[in-house]
Design brief:
alpha+beta, three-stranded antiparallel sheet, four-stranded antiparallel sheet
Length: 159
Amino acid sequence: MSVNVEVQVDPPGEDDRVETAWTLKEQIRTEEGVLKQRRPFFTDAYRRSKTHLLFEDDDLVGFASVRRDGYILFLAVAPSYRGEGHGKRLVAEAADDHESISCHARATNESALSFYEYLSFEIVRRITGYYEDGGDAYYLKLGDTPSIRDRFADLLRRS
């Protein structure tokens, strides 16, 4: 059986798929206690960013919302689709537009931190009380040398 994975994009100012992304984000929040953003914040940030969405057939399996400066606001992959390279593909989509990319990850989210470490993100600093609930975050960055595009081309070849 052949699986069709398609990337779709909502550019800044468009929110054609914001409801679908919100539903996936809320599923992850309910199951894992992460991605705790409130709806107005999420919707506003989504509309201000470029969002790469991965669909397997008609199902949203993941998305990444990225600001113009390369900062990843949201990166989400449905739990049942993890381990299939979707997260790497979303980060690669984001990296294709920027010299460097960055994000925050909750200091207690070991799976996210392991994922970013695998992709060669570097922890720049820890931020105490970053999240609304008082949780700490790490600020992570990928880029500069060697070029981000070369890193991802190599990483995707190895997958």
